[in-house]
Specification:
This protein has twelve helices and 18 strands. The two termini are about 35 Å apart. By secondary structure, the protein is of the alpha/beta class. It folds into three domains: about 250 residues, 3-Layer(aba) Sandwich (Aminopeptidase), CATH 3.40.630; about 100 residues, Glucose Oxidase, domain 1 (3-Layer(bba) Sandwich); about 70 residues, no CATH class.
């Protein structure tokens, strides 16, 4: 178990908040969420009930966002496979993974030889139900265990029913903002579009709830230096919709962004860095991982799989890093009913939260000065240069010019000190004087 260094959390009641977050998981675990349906909205509203008022952004069905079209709401009623005599062999009321999300309606007698093309089972577990989707396609299918498939195959003809329908609705993204002294922001994004999956679906939101509680605690204690935003969205289409609205704001103000997923188990950590270059999000994550003596693995961007795909897309190029424990698509339980409440733990969630809290602490104790002039400032307005030709210019003027040259809002004060070959205390003194003169801003 890691001994986490979290500087500001001595009075943060993690035990109670962790229990509350776990209770939230238990409450929403079995809700049949999808990209857009009542259960997705109910889950988002349950986060609002837990954290207070969120800001909601909405896009109507059939609206264009980027190269995508907002889909319709998918509403699922009863769904089952039965014998001709009426004995149900598979029933969505037993597990909502049994019907692939966004399956179209079907009700008919069907020969097994035709049905089997629409049956999916896990090749790793005989008793696991896989999770599949039919987004943006006119298809239907059932997901069953291998044991159920073997039982169904005993019948020549079966009755199947999927009582689904599609209705015009709204895609909704939830935002919770914690404004700090600076408009520079750190984002946390996670998703809410999978039914009955614990690690791949609910661990990210559960950790984000803890992060929100921690930010609320820090803001009430000493205030926040930077601004923090948490977003809950349907994966992929939600991220694209959010970018269609906020890309320019993000590009202007974002210091770092993190996609939170698969954080509830007890495996070592992993991350996928930004596509283009090593970002502050990656630098600060690695700093906290090393500081807390955590084993981790870095994955190339070619192994992306969550919303870092959208946030780091060419032309977007936001400084996002995706954080996880068991990596999506690599653990055997992924996208099956084995990714259940037994697969995650309070301990796993707690340690993942502590890692994020450590990153937040590091940001709050860091400075990213921003030059407040167009071109070099006219320093003689601010500094005593002495009498030209006799005493010479202020001996600090060259250091100050060099200092200001690196005040781009992305280079941390420690790094500026190293770049211009002065110690941190001297850099901090220059920083404070430049703040007082309004030559740099937070």
């Amino acid at each position: 178990m890691a001994l986490f260094i979290v500087k500001n959390s001595s009075n943060f009641n993690l035990k109670d908040e962790l229990n509350n977050s776990w209770d939230w998981i238990l409450k929403v675990y079995e809700w049949p969420r999808s990209l857009m349906n009542d259960e997705y909205l109910n889950t988002l509203n349950s986060i609002q009930d837990t954290l207070g008022k969120l800001k909601f952004y909405n896009w109507n069905s059939d609206a264009r966002v980027g190269d995508w079209t907002i889909p319709k709401n998918w509403i699922i009623g009863e769904a089952y496979i039965a014998t001709k005599e009426g004995k149900k062999l598979v029933d969505i009321s037993d597990n909502n993974l049994h019907v692939s999300s966004y399956s179209k309606p079907v009700s008919k007698l069907i020969k097994f030889t035709d049905l089997k093309e629409n049956l999916h089972f896990s090749t790793k577990y005989d008793d696991a139900i896989p999770y599949l989707t039919h987004y943006y396609s006119d298809e239907w299918s059932f997901c069953v265990t291998k044991n159920q498939f073997d039982e169904i195959s005993k019948y020549d003809e079966l009755f199947i029913k999927i009582d689904s329908k599609f209705e015009t609705g709204k895609l909704t993204v939830g935002e919770l903002a914690f404004k700090g002294q600076s408009k520079k922001q750190i984002n946390f994004n996670t998703y809410l579009c999978h039914p009955s999956l614990a690690n791949n679906e609910l661990s990210g939101p559960a950790v984000s709830i803890l992060v929100a509680k921690y930010l609320e605690y820090l803001k009430g204690k000493n205030g926040l230096r930077y601004s923090y935003f948490i977003y809950w969205e349907p994966e992929t289409i939600g991220a694209v919709a959010l970018l269609s609205l906020k890309k320019d704001v993000f590009k202007e103000n974002m210091l770092a962004g993190y996609v939170l997923t698969c954080l509830g188990d007890n495996s070592d950590y992993g991350y996928i860095g930004s596509r283009k270059h090593t970002s502050l999000s990656e630098i600060f994550l690695k700093r906290s991982l090393k500081k807390n003596n955590l084993i981790y693995k870095e994955y190339p961007f070619s192994q992306r799989g969550s919303d870092e795909r959208q946030f780091c897309w060419p032309g977007v190029d936001l400084p996002y890093t995706c954080i996880f424990r068991s990596k999506f698509e690599e653990y055997d339980e992924y996208h099956t009913s084995k990714d259940n409440l037994d697969f995650i733990s309070k301990e796993g969630l707690s340690e993942s939260f502590k890692l994020i809290a450590s990153i937040i602490d590091d940001f709050e104790n860091s400075f990213f000065p921003i030059s407040n002039t167009i071109g070099e400032p006219f320093l003689s307005q601010y500094l005593d240069y002495g009498i030209p030709g006799k005493t010479g210019p202020n001996k600090n003027s060259s250091k100050i010019r060099e200092f200001l040259c690196y005040c781009d809002g992305e280079t941390e004060l420690n790094d500026i000190a190293k770049l211009i070959n002065i110690d941190y205390l001297e850099a901090k003194t220059i920083y404070n004087s430049m703040i007082d003169l309004n030559l740099v801003i937070l």
